Known about the structure:
The chain is 17% helix and 44% strand. By secondary structure, the chain is of the alpha+beta class. It folds into two domains: 20-152, Trefoil (Acidic Fibroblast Growth Factor, subunit A); 165-284, Lipocalin, CATH 2.40.128.270. Strands 13, 14, 15, 16, 17, 18, 19, 20 and 21 form a nine-stranded antiparallel sheet that branches. A hairpin with a 5-residue loop joins strand 8 and strand 9. The longest helix is centred in the first third of the chain and has 18 residues, at 2-19. It is elongated.
Amino acid sequence: xxxxxxxxxxxxxxxASQAVAxxxxxxxxxxxxxxxxxxVDGRLAATAPNARRASMFDTVRLEGNxxxxxxxxxxxxxRAGVGKGAFLAPxxxxxxxxxxxxxxxxxxGAVALRSAQNGRYVRAGVGSGSRLAAVSPHAxxxxxxxxxxxxxxxxxxxxxxxxxxxxxxxxxGTYRITHVxxxxxxxxxxxxxxxxQSSLSLSRGGDVQASVGCNGxxxxxxxxxxxxxxxxxxxxxxMFCHGQGVMEAERGVSRAxxxxxxxxxxxxxxxxxxxxxxxxxxxRG
Length: 285
């Protein structure tokens, strides 16, 4: 009898440790493609164009950096060992090895999800349907995700469940500048050398630091539901820059940061547009 009681107590402690902190409701987003994760033919795929069409999950925080995800529609847990390809799918009634993921924090608010069972990272670009599977030995572009809180979506902090527009939390990061609009209004692609030496970083607070290899520029912007506004003018150093097209590119970047009124993301590319819809700048993540 004592052995039975001890077993029941141990089981209760284990159950309590797994059930604790059924934290927030979230959606998952591929940081590489910008697509949200949903269920397609019973398995997870990064194909939803916005958060409104994504699958919603409860997060269950386990020991250390480990986490499980419960599908709100079915009440079952995500499992990474579905089929020979280790695909992710809801349907498991319990939390064990295949249902446990290690959450590794990366730059820019992104995360990598590593299966506690096979030690492989979850990849979003498996096959033509962008299915999720725990198959990668490393965490790079297709293995990076964002865990987006439903409450933040409602509050407009990282997205909008009823809109396709992006917010600061969606696009914060470091980019190369690939195109800027010239003074005549036409979008011009920068040369290979200019693109390689260019950089634009955008913090989650809206601070922008940009350069095409010579002068530095800074400004703070606000982004909400795809709409952009600069808080004040662009501040920059005033050095004379050698190299073909450098100063013209700097003027184009400064105009784009000052005059852009909307921004959209197409995969890894950010496109800044004027109020009339004309493109002012393209960035590549």
